[in-house]
């Protein structure tokens, strides 16, 4: 095989076949995928299904704490998980740029396979296209996923009521800062938090403790998710700066670069709103899971001002936390 | 975190606020019943004052007035227009500049819009990055659109020196640099607003030295304190200034002693003087202030975009966009909420003027932090 992707790898001919078989089918190692049919056929894995899709265009494709492949699996697993679903099947489509090193593609496929195995999700169908040099950025990946929704679970920000508690599973901004520093050539030791959240989400829901809504605060960060909650629930979200976990490295880098950690992307964090009386149980369950070790209540929903997120700063004054406006960051997910 | 948390502790901040209140409101004190206007020149101070709620914490008779201290904001509209004319004409040129410049509206377009139309505009974090861009694109002209105060200018000067040493042929700089002390003088001379004292910028002064403000006390009888940017720095600076006023002193003082000296950074001053010389400059909202800009010296003319290209002011418009009051905000005549466009037609996602675009802009600071 060639050591770089050629346009012919996307032609549908021999090279396409060898790429698909020797890289993807071999890595993903799944009986349904190995049939090489145009579709995967399977029995419905449950009564209530969740279905999601997402595209990954991150640059750089390898970053501290992960790579685009791990991200593409975790992202879809997490989108299912925060809906209360356990991931079962996934698709994986690749748009590869002519000239991309085949070793990179192999490494990415390997990383996807490993992550999928850890998540217990099967990659059962996929596609590969090759675009001319200069028309892509090494590789773009699209994944879709099907998950089985846990019995009796219904989550929506519209259920949020004043007095409910806001909980975050750990430090915010790690992924966004890892990408920024890697791109900018800064030597700040921050790793992406990229991780699958399905177990943590299941741990939380198992408590049966009045969870109203869950999201993974990716692009746009915690600030954006809380604004979405406030908009949908038609109430306000009050958070306290000193309660929000942020790594010192991230905080320091934010000061230097002029960023706000509330707007930085996360890829392994979960924010949820739950009834106040259930929070002890939820926090206890979260803290038993390594991904929720630093879980903390960061504030409460309140009556007003409607559709606003209000932050009480470390100095004790209050300000509105807006939605992210304009282009703040490079391609981060 | 070191050098951060200890300057953001709420208890000492509250104590400092109380001390300022006592000084300014003491019944028999000199300041009782008087309105005191304090101008912070620097955009970073404006940002801190908004972000940490310092304005709201001040006693009623102390008014904090934001000055023209955001380099993006004070860039005049004609200076943006002529750059846009340039990128439309010189299709093969690469323009490099700082990020905030991209979204500032000129009279008919912005760099962001021109970039979408195909102009090659690069955002750099340091002017030194332009050396790499020039080396990687030998067949293209690379022009650095250079804004900033005394803090930025030395690095630009160093870039030009380095470009000459390396024999770079395709790099030039359009210098729109501004100097702080002449602007302070112009604002006091104009007499439009009541300024009782200045909070001077910490990092500008780290370069030029605190002596540069001597004229304020000697010629105008105004006190001035050079302050740092953390909330406790800013509060301590304000306390020192109010204390001077309460004792009828009019000194130049340094609060930010861990960074600022009386002489400033000699090395930075030297490279600045090697490359640049003072010139008149046009400020948005204020107009031309004599000796408030920097132009490239004859010896470095090969790197001066003004000399290298035809980049004059033909077809540029001085008037602000309809209704935008950035000019008045920059002079401290009004606060952002007094502008009819603020928060309505003008928001960070749809800025009508530069003070809403730049993260150091006064309108952006009020919008982000002072709307609760």
Could you please describe the fold and organization of this structure?
- The complex is a heterodimer of chains A (333) and B (372).
- Chain A is an alpha+beta fold.
- Chain A has two domains: 7-149, PurM-like, N-terminal domain (60s Ribosomal Protein L30, Chain: A), CATH 3.30.1330; 157-320, Phosphoribosyl-aminoimidazole Synthetase, Chain A, domain 2 (Alpha-Beta Complex), CATH 3.90.650.
- Helix content of chain A is 31%, strand content 23%.
- Chain A is built from nine helices and 13 strands.
- A seven-stranded mixed β-sheet of chain A has the order 8-10-7-11-9-12-13.
- By secondary structure, chain B is of the alpha/beta class.
- The A-B interface holds A 184, 248, 251-252, 255, 258, 310, 313-320, 322, 325-326 and B 1, 4, 8, 10, 13-14, 51-53, 56-57, 103, 125, 231, 347-349, 359, 367-372.
Quick structural overview:
The complex is a heterodimer of chains A (333) and B (372). Chain A is of the alpha+beta class and 333 residues long.
Number of strands of chain A: 13
Helix content of chain B: 25-40%
C-alpha Rg of chain B (nearest Å): 21 Å
For the biggest sheet of chain A, the summary is: 7 strands, mixed
Main beta sheet of chain B, described? 5 strands, parallel
């Amino acid at each position: 095989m060639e050591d770089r992707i050629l346009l012919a790898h996307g032609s549908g001919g021999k090279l396409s076949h060898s790429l698909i078989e020797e890289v993807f089918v071999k890595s993903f190692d799944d009986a349904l995928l190995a049939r090489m049919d145009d579709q995967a056929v399977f029995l419905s894995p449950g009564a209530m299904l969740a279905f999601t899709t997402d595209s990954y265009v991150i640059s750089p494709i390898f970053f501290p704490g992960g790579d685009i492949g791990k991200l593409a699996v975790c992202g879809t697993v997490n989108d299912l998980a925060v809906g209360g679903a356990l991931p079962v099947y996934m698709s994986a489509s690749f748009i590869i740029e002519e000239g991309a090193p085949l070793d990179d593609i192999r490494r990415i496929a390997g990383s996807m396979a490993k992550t999928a195995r850890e998540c217990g999700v099967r990659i059962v169908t996929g596609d590969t296209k090759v675009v001319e040099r200069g028309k892509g950025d090494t590789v773009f990946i699209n994944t879709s996923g099907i998950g089985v929704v846990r019995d009796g679970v219904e989550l929506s920000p519209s259920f949020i009521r004043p007095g409910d508690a806001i909980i975050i599973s750990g430090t915010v901004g790690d992924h966004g800062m890892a990408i920024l520093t890697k791109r900018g050539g800064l030597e700040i030791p921050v790793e992406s938090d990229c991780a699958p959240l399905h177990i943590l989400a299941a741990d939380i829901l198992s408590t049966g403790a009045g969870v109203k809504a869950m999201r993974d605060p990716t692009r746009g960060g915690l600030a954006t998710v809380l604004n979405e909650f406030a908009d949908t629930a038609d109430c306000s979200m009050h958070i306290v700066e000193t309660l929000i976990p942020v790594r010192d490295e991230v905080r320091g880098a934010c000061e230097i670069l002029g960023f706000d950690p509330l707007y930085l992307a996360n890829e392994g964090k979960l924010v949820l709103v739950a009834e106040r009386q259930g929070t002890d149980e939820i926090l206890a369950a979260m803290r038993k899971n390594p991904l929720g070790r630093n879980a903390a209540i960061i504030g409460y929903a309140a009556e007003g001002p409607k559709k606003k997120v209000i932050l009480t700063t470390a100095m004790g004054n209050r300000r509105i936390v807006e939605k992210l406006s304009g282009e703040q960051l490079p391609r981060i997910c | 975190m070191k050098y951060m948390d200890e300057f953001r502790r709420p208890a000492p901040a509250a104590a400092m606020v109380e001390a300022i209140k006592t000084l300014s409101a003491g019944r028999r004190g000199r300041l009782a019943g008087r309105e005191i206007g304090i101008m912070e020149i620097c955009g970073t101070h404006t940002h801190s004052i908004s972000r940490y709620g310092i304005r709201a914490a001040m006693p009623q008779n102390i008014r904090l007035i934001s000055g023209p201290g955001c380099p993006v904001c004070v860039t005049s509209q004609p200076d943006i227009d002529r750059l846009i004319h340039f990128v439309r004409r010189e299709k093969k040129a690469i323009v490099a500049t700082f990020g905030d410049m991209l979204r500032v509206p000129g009279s008919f377009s912005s760099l962001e819009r021109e970039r979408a139309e195909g102009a090659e505009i690069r955002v750099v974090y340091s002017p030194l990055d332009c050396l790499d861009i020039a080396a990687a694109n030998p067949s293209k002209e690379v022009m650095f659109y250079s804004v900033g105060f005394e803090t930025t200018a030395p690095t630009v000067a160093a870039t030009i020196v380095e470009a000459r040493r390396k024999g770079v042929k395709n790099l030039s700089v359009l210098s729109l640099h501004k100097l702080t002390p002449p602007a302070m003088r112009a604002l006091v001379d104009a007499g439009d607003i009541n300024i009782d004292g200045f909070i001077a910028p910490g990092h500008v002064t780290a370069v030029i030295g605190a002596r540069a403000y001597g004229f304020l006390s000697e010629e105008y009888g105004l006190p001035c304190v050079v302050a740092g940017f953390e909330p406790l720095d800013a509060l301590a600076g304000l306390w020192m200034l109010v204390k001077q006023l309460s004792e009828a002193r009019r000194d130049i003082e340094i609060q930010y002693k861990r960074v600022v000296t009386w002489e400033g950074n000699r090395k930075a001053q030297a490279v600045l003087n090697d490359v640049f010389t003072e010139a008149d400059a046009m400020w948005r909202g204020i107009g031309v202030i004599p000796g408030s800009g920097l132009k490239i010296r004859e010896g470095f003319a090969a790197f001066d975009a003004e000399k290298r290209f035809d980049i004059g002011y033909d077809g540029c418009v001085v008037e602000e966009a309809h209704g935008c009051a950035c000019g008045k905000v920059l002079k401290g005549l009004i606060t952002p909420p007094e502008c009819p466009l603020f928060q309505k037609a003008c928001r960070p996602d749809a800025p009508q003027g530069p003070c809403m675009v730049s993260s150091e802009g006064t309108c952006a600071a009020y919008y982000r932090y002072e709307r609760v």
